[in-house]
Amino acid sequence: MIPHRYAHILFSFILSGLMSAIVSAIATFRTVGLPADFASIWFGSWLTSWSIAFPAVLIVAPIARRLVALLTTSPQQG
């Protein structure tokens, strides 16, 4: 098992992988259609996207958390 102190890194890894897979699949489909080699074209696109998305999520997630905290109220403040 992975220690809990690395949970934010694992979360970023999984989130960036899934999101970049979905977005790159849509972008690839819109660009090339559905040729026989779609999977290999998409996979190359996805790996490139993920290599950028993972560090981006590590940097952007804390900023997004702070913005959400500023824009929302806690249950005690009601």
Terminal Cα span: 38 Å
Class by alpha and beta content: mainly alpha
Radius of gyration using CA atoms only: 17 Å
Give me the count of strands: 0
Oligomeric state of shown chains: single chain
| Elements, N to C (H/E) | HH
Total count of helical runs of at least 4 residues: 2
User: Any low-confidence stretches, pLDDT <50, length ≥5?
Assistant: none
Chain-averaged pLDDT:
94
* Rough outline: elongated
Overall helicity:
over 70%
The share of residues in extended strands comes to under 5%
**Largest sheet: number of strands, sense, barrel closure:** none
Describe this entry's structure for a reader:
The structure is a single chain. The protein is mostly helical and 78 residues long. The chain has a domain at 21-71. It contains 2 helices and no strands. It has helices at residues 7-32, 38-71. The longest helix is centred in the last third of the chain and has 34 residues, at 38-71. The protein is elongated. The model has no long low-confidence stretch (mean pLDDT 94). This is DUF2798 domain-containing protein. Keywords: Membrane, Transmembrane, Transmembrane helix. The chain crosses the membrane at residues 41-64. It holds the Pfam family DUF2798.
